[in-house]
Specification:
Length: 204
């Protein structure tokens, strides 16, 4: 399945939760998208449908292909700790996700592009792979180039109301950040029930 490039607010309305696009659009139209959306009732779903919806909701949030998403889940399953929580950690500590959380980009899609264009350095080295997994202690900075720094500074100003999570530190003046530690569960996606996703994948 290719990466979703359609109307972003349709996804939020489909899952009845802000995922992509403007949150105001969901407030204006809280019913499902489509011609019959206003008259549709959210009927009781099967366990399979609930698991699929939860999985798709998380996958769309991070903008991953199904193969990427499943591969990351398998990695989490084979590591020590709680599978669901470790899975969320692996998603949150992708470099594009960290750049988004720091406020250097407006969205995860924009953060992916920012990384792919070579604007980010990790521990002093250029990293242009959005899926790069950062570790505790890693230092992240915007490349010392006028175009890179101007774009990052503008985005930080526009995103100044967004709080940087406690496991990251950000210096807006120097455009340098540090991964202090791995995120705890309460610092990651609150609208996701990762256990349902674990149970969904356990069916296969």
């Amino acid at each position: 399945m290719a990466r979703y490039t359609g109307p972003t607010t349709r996804l939020s309305r489909r899952f009845n939760q802000h995922i992509l696009g403007s949150a105001k659009a969901l407030e204006r139209r809280s019913y499902p998208p489509g011609q019959h959306g206003p008259r549709l009732r959210r009927s009781k779903q099967s366990e399979y449908a609930i698991g699929l919806n939860e999985k798709q909701k998380l996958r769309y949030t991070y903008g991953l292909l199904e193969r990427q998403f499943r591969r990351l889940f398998e990695k989490a399953k084979n590591e020590r700790g709680i599978t669901g929580e470790r899975f969320l950690q692996l998603l949150e500590t992708r470099l594009d996700s960290v750049v988004y959380l720091l406020g250097i980009a407006k969205s995860r899609a924009a953060a992916r592009q920012f990384v792919n264009h070579g604007h980010i350095r990790v521990n002093g080295h250029k990293v242009d792979i959005a899926s790069y997994a950062v570790q505790a202690g890693d230092e992240i900075e915007v490349r010392n180039a006028p175009a890179s720094r101007q774009l990052a500074t503008r985005n930080l100003e526009e995103n100044r109301m967004r709080n940087v999570p406690g496991w990251l530190t950000m210096d807006s003046e120097t455009l340098k950040a540090k991964v202090a530690r791995l995120p705890n569960r309460d610092e990651m996606e609150p609208g996701i029930n990762e256990q349902i996703i674990v149970e969904f994948y356990s069916r296969f």
